[in-house]
Amino acid sequence: MSRAPFGTRRSRRRRRSAGLFAAVAVAAVVVAAVAGVFGFALLRPAVSSTAPPASPTPSWSAAATEKPSPTPRTTAAPAPTPSVAASCDGTATLVSVWAHPDDDIIFANPTISDAIAAGECVRTVFLTAGDAGKGLGYVEARELGILRAYNDMRGTEGLWDTADVVLESGVHVRRLTPHGNPRISVLFFRLPDGNITGGGFASTGFATLGRLLDGQLSALSPIDGGVSVSRDQVLASVRDLAREFAPERLFTHIPRGSSFAPGDHPDHSVVGSIVRDALSGDPAIAPGIRYVVGYPSETLPRNLDGPVLDAKVDTYRIYAQEDEVIRCADRASCLGTRKFGEWLRRSYPKTEAELNLG
After folding, report:
1. What is the DSSP string of 310-349?
2. Domain 93-354 falls in which CATH fold?
């Protein structure tokens, strides 16, 4: 058998090695591409059946994870929608309007959780971002906590579809609805937190909803850089929402001037006054309004216990996992938290006649 010269054999070996390396590289690229496609298929949120295939509705993941974080769809945001209402097929509707994310589950439950369990439509509105001067990251964490708390109340984990909604007042709000469940929705105005002092925070220019209501400010900007709103627009927005949702019951804070207002958070009293100013003259809505006692409830007798209290505390604990300020690990630590533990043990809705307005 004849042999090729050494130089020729070496050249051939080099060519075979180069070919082998090239084949390995191509194989690696193919494996990576397949893995990427598979990973995307696993992680990609489900697309809302009501959204056009070319432009799915953004979603947040509110399922429990070790390191939870909002998971928006990687698509362009939808165009603003003119309506916030979704069909409830004649089902009773409970609307609640609050100052901060968590006011609902601290002061109004078990009313909200009972309404969800009964299959009612539940619409929850938060006027301020509850930012505490900490910025958008803290706000998003609190909002995520609220979505997870509502998942707990409805007994199902899952994604929430989000949309930018423009009310007839011209105010932009962020609406989130559990994927496939239009009976529940949560709306965020993201206006600045007014602080426990009522004076606001330096990070938001000491702008507050109270100063807007009192005419000290002509406009108030959301903390996320959204479109500024006027006092009249805020009042009109509450009327817009009430008209669209047509609730049998509407829960909110105790307004200014009530004997239950002193000692409450200023934002609570302002939001209660906004709702009362906007809706107390509406014969279709006013009879169903209940004003819920806030911070001063700790001086009233405890009226929640047993399984009802256990369920309320567990919902609050799930929310609190996302709130770095009031995080509590279990029932005992939640109920042992100063002030919050006493508020959780109570819920005191009041009628207009029970406000004891001065």
Report:
1. HHHHHHHHHHHTT-TTT---SHHHHHTSTTHHHHHT---E
2. Rossmann fold (3.40.50)
* pLDDT attached to residue 158: 93
The pTM of this model reads: 0.80
Please name the residue that has the structure tokens 């609406």.
175
Residue 83's pLDDT is 60
Q: Span 35-64, mean pLDDT?
A: 38
Contacts of 234 (CB under 8 A, 6+ apart): 127, 169, 171, 191, 209, 212, 213, 220, 274
CA separation for the pair 316, 66 (Å, rounded): 18
Residue 128's DSSP bridge partners are 191
pLDDT band at 60 (very low <50, low <70, confident <90, very high): low
User: In the numeric block, which tokens belong to residue 67?
Assistant: 């390191």
Residues 6+ apart with CB under 8 A from 305: 345
- Note if the bond before 70 is cis, omega within 30 degrees: no
> How far is the C-alpha of 151 from the C-alpha of 232, rounded, in Å?
34
